[in-house]
Input
Amino acid sequence: MTSISTCPMPLATFIEPMLGIPAWGVKQGYGSFLTFEFGPPKLEVIERLSPEKGLRRSAYVHGQWHLWINCCHWRALQHDLLLAWSEDDDQVIGRVTAALNAQKLVGVRVTPDDGRSTFTFDLGGTLETWPYGDDPTNEQWNILTDTESFAYRADGLYSYGPSSQSPDLERWLPLR
Output
């Protein structure tokens, strides 16, 4: 069952095409950051020219949608049983990435008044996020495509625009 009924309109419109698609490449990034890929894979090759090292090339595989959980607390559950939370060690967090990998995203719920959000998956997985720290402008998560970016902050505001847009030009609006 896919659900966008609990999403505010800008978010519902953005995530609707992702619903029912399995997550893949779920992994832990820096610290407790988590990344998820959705949709067909695409190879991204980035070249950098450095005076010290010469030409360098990196290759990454991303999905049509890339979800990045960062700068927030989170906890993951499977059938309402806690798997791990953002302060656990890497081995415990590895259980989260394994459990959520290949589960289909079926819903996203946000509560802008307290900056919380919940990602729900078809096989009983749930990922809940909430703010940490005192900076309400921390971005808790972003969903990126080749052309668009949707970001959600601790203060419940969102930014939507071109994925190539400079962070200085982002407009933050209430998600209601």
The helical segments are 9-15, 90-100. The first strand starts at residue 23 and ends at 28.
